[in-house]
């Protein structure tokens, strides 16, 4: 098993002129995009479980996507998708669970019933959290999305055996971090808003997350992110 801290040489993204890697040749592949927060969840999971040698990254250039991806691999034409055991599986949250239960490495979901229950609650809140924050970018920003970050702050106070959502590091942290990472950068840049001000638990959580090698290597480039979000959200106003 590879170490979660192993620093990889990342393969370059494939564009429309790239040849398709052999399909169903027995290698497990994660079709991904280095800047996609959904795909990042599965990437962190793979790294944390030390599966760098077992799950090969196949990065795509989404702006200039190879046609074979939609035609032959994943008709939804989105990333992430995992090729495993003769099947293609999509949807990032399902994939975090799938990789956790079908591969070796440390388990990402606690057995404790109270933690399981709270984990489910946070798991079903995430899409709403993302929607609230994205919507706020086109509106009043911090005023609208502040309560969603307060919700995270209060959730982080639920278990005292660690700084993570379920105390110890889990799949729930993996589900949230790619988005909190991006929201922190963009709210600071575009609205001069610090999501950690007055939210010490959120601040501590981000700090602890930043120490996790499996995550560190997957972080997005802040400058590119700001450019991309500026185009996507503020330029249309
Ligand atoms: N619900 C999906 C969302 C995946 C998704 O939207 N990925 C984006 C990239 S960040 C994508 O592939 N977009 C390409 C497209 O929609 O054409 C998941 O959680 O995996």
Automatic annotation (TrEMBL):
A GO BP term, please?
response to toxic substance
In this chain, the stretch annotated as Disordered covers 1-21
- In the record, what terms sit under GO molecular function? glutathione transferase activity
- What EC number is given for this enzyme? 2.5.1.18
The family database entries (InterPro entries) matched by this protein are listed as: Glutathione-S-Trfase_C_sf, Glutathione_S-Trfase, Glutathione_S-Trfase_N, GSTL1/2/3, Thioredoxin-like_sf
Q: GST N-terminal domain: from which residue to which, for each copy? A: 26-107
The record's catalysed reaction(s) read: RX + glutathione = an S-substituted glutathione + a halide anion + H(+)
- What are the entry keywords? Detoxification
Q: Does the keyword Cell membrane apply?
A: no
Which branch of life, at top level? Eukaryota
Q: Family per UniProt? A: Belongs to the GST superfamily. Lambda family.
Protein name as catalogued: glutathione transferase
Task: Please report the organism this UniProt entry assigns to the protein.
Answer: Eucalyptus grandis
Organism classification: Eukaryota, Viridiplantae, Streptophyta, Embryophyta, Tracheophyta
